[in-house]
UniProtKB/TrEMBL annotation:
Cross-referenced Pfam families: SusD-like_2
Superkingdom, taxonomy of origin: Bacteria
Protein name in the entry: SusD-like starch-binding protein associating with outer membrane
């Protein structure tokens, strides 16, 4: 648990080569990375922010937690070699890596806040393009909220820390005096506090919306306070929607307030971390497939068939098909059957099926934290499946992927009217590559209903005159995992609090529903 309590950006964490992400940075920025980070004047808040943004996105979208986790659970991808994770055999070591890397990033973000509040360093923290103390703190709070929300959506109750609340259950990150065995806060407390953190941070940045913070070291928004404020409010829509069943009054209050103060209104507002074409800063999928020369992540037959118009409620080909997937060696779009037994999965090679499309699998791909299409779908749901917001969401997704206007018009004409199923189906298609959020929405809503379920036939193969039907049979659980196991290390370094968390939440397995989904 020391990894959570001590500020651990060793030189490898304020990442080697990360300055190359920003072509406009001078060579002096590289020098900052190699100084002693444990002294207040040794590292600038701009450099910490740059590192933390990359750490947060790298961790959420990395090979284990995303490609072998949420992207499989959402059935966007399917494995054509090692298919056990598709069937929910999830190595517990994945949790260790995801957990520890999340808290490293959170410690970096918390250090920005500390440097901007400590009387000995707060004047130093505003040097150069960093911006005011208040604005730096606000952006760090937003990114902390985003990272903590993803972390609690994976595990449930977790050690948590807040800038704005002194709740005694919030014991994570750097505490004074040092706490090496922090308690796990309830997900209910975490979610409500995240909403308050986002509200406070968004209000601050709206007040100073014409100012810039962190300059070009901020990969996501290039320091534009106004866009950060919109992101804070848009995240409140997501989180308020997630807790509507459990906290309807709090949900409505935050949703209405966020809408009034300003959320995303076009793709120009999207929160995106864009990677670089040069090593070592390529996008996570590219690193897993091209750099590592792996071909075992194919586009699933579920989403390929939906995009072809053969499955679901839209009976025309979706123009996003050519972006989301590539053709196989025969020149066809063929999805990898989802969740096959290992022996059967090996009967298909990478040339038989569709791999991720070149746009999606680019080295300089921009990983999305949140986008306008999602916001429009959230508003449609809030307004009892509003038709115009539904159309806005579909249009925004198509435009984001560069679809020609004529094709957008044709596709919109074929859309069925807005209702729960149709809005959530389109939201699912728009969230492609954002497996973490798609997985959460599948757990929350139960949609889309066209996803593979245990017992479904996913592939029929004829050989030597005999047809064999392969059914989807999970190795663990009975449906989409509700969470991941806590890291095994927690049982050795923080046993009492781990046990308390399990007692409060339920068994430490993948079938235990999270608070917002009970």
């Amino acid at each position: 648990m020391k990894i959570m309590q001590k500020f651990i950006y060793q030189k490898g964490i304020l990442t080697l080569g990360i300055g190359a992400l920003l072509a406009s940075c001078s060579d002096s920025h590289f020098e900052d990375i190699n100084k002693d980070p444990n002294r207040p004047t040794a590292v600038t808040t701009t450099t910490i922010l740059l590192s933390a943004e990359k750490q947060v996105i790298d961790n959420i979208r990395n090979e284990n937690s995303s490609l072998r986790g949420s992207q499989l659970f959402a059935q966007y991808y399917s494995q054509n070699i090692y298919s056990d994770q598709s069937r929910y055999d999830i190595p517990r070591s994945y949790s260790d890596t995801y957990w520890s890397n999340a808290y490293k990033a959170l410690n970096n973000l918390n250090e920005i806040i500390k440097l901007n509040t400590d009387p000995a360093t707060k004047s130093i923290a505003t040097a150069g393009t960093a911006g005011t103390n208040a604005n730096q703190i606000a952006i760090a709070r937003i990114l902390k909220a985003y990272a903590f929300q993803n972390l609690t959506d994976v595990f449930g109750n977790i050690p948590y820390q807040s800038y704005g609340s002194q709740d005694p259950d919030f014991q994570a990150l750097q505490q004074e005096p040092e706490n090496l065995s922090p308690a796990y806060a309830s997900q209910q407390k975490i979610y409500l506090d995240i909403l308050n953190e986002l509200k406070a941070a968004g209000d601050t940045l709206t007040k100073y919306k014409t100012a810039t913070t962190f300059g070009t070291y901020d990969v996501i928004y290039k320091g534009k306070n106004e866009l950060w404020a919109k992101f804070a409010n848009s995240l409140r829509l997501r989180i308020a929607t997630r807790i509507r069943k459990q906290q309807p009054a709090e949900s409505k209050t935050h949703f209405d307030d966020a809408l009034a103060k300003g959320v995303f209104t076009s793709n120009a507002d999207n929160a995106v971390f864009k990677y670089q074409s040069l090593a070592p800063n390529e996008a996570p999928l590219y690193r897993a497939t091209v750099t590592a020369n792996r071909k075992d992540f194919a586009v699933s037959h579920v989403i390929v068939n939906v995009l072809k118009g053969d499955l679901g409620t839209v009976e025309v080909q979706d123009p996003r098909l050519a972006v989301y997937a590539s053709k196989n060696a025969a020149g066809n779009y063929v999805g990898q059957p989802y969740g096959l037994p290992v022996a059967a999965a090996g009967l298909l090679t990478a040339t038989d099926v569709s791999l991720p499309g070149t746009v999606v699998n680019a080295a300089n791909y921009g990983e999305v934290l949140q986008e306008y299409a999602e916001v429009a779908f959230l508003i449609s749901e809030y307004k009892n499946w509003d038709q115009q917001e539904y159309i806005n969401g579909v249009t925004a997704s198509l435009q984001k992927w560069g679809i020609a206007q004529a094709d957008i018009t044709t596709y919109l004409a074929a859309l069925p009217k807005a209702d729960k199923a149709n809005v959530l189906n389109q939201k699912y298609l728009a969230l492609y590559t954002q497996g973490d959020e798609a997985w959460a929405e599948i757990r929350r809503t139960g949609y889309p209903t066209f996803l593979v379920k245990p017992g479904d036939i996913v592939w029929s193969r004829t050989a030597d005159g005999k047809t064999t039907d392969y059914k989807f049979q999970p190795l663990f659980g009975e449906g989409v995992p509700q969470r991941l196991y806590y890291p095994p290390k927690e049982q050795s370094v923080n046993l009492a609090n781990y046990q308390n968390a399990v007692k409060a939440q339920g068994n430490d397995d993948i079938t235990t529903a999270l608070w917002w989904n009970k």
